[in-house]
Write a structure and sequence with these properties.
Blueprint: H1 5-84, E1 101-105, E2 108-112
Antiparallel strand pairs: 1-2
Length: 113
């Protein structure tokens, strides 16, 4: 049952000792590590802010390109539509239909074409 107790026991005792040592050392390490951690955090935040500013600038540039492209596409479509629109044919006035004339012939009204 306790064949490997020597290995387990020595590991347990080493871990227990390390815990006591760290408990005594940590307050001193904590005081030294706090400014370092704060500096790393500030540097990370500044890097993030710079990246966001760059992203916003790139995004605005892309939005401008898209807007200009859409405008050019619409302009080109309108120009094509104007060129493809059939020209209005010049039509001559149609000759007036022959007027029907009513004449009185021998007492009756007759329509002449």
């Amino acid at each position: 049952m306790f064949k490997n107790f020597g290995t387990f026991g020595s590991g347990f005792i080493i871990g227990l000792g390390a815990g006591f040592v760290l408990r005594e050392v940590m307050p001193h390490f904590k005081d030294a590590a706090k400014p370092i951690a704060k500096g790393v955090t500030k540097a990370g935040m500044e890097l993030y802010d710079g990246a966001m500013e760059s992203y916003e600038g790139i995004r605005e540039g892309i939005e401008d390109l898209i807007a200009e492209s859409r405008f050019e596409i619409k302009t080109r479509k309108m120009q094509r539509a104007q060129h493809k629109a059939p020209a209005k044919k010049k039509t001559r006035a149609k000759p007036a239909a022959k007027a029907r004339v009513k004449k009185k012939v021998g007492g009756e009204h007759v329509i002449i074409h």
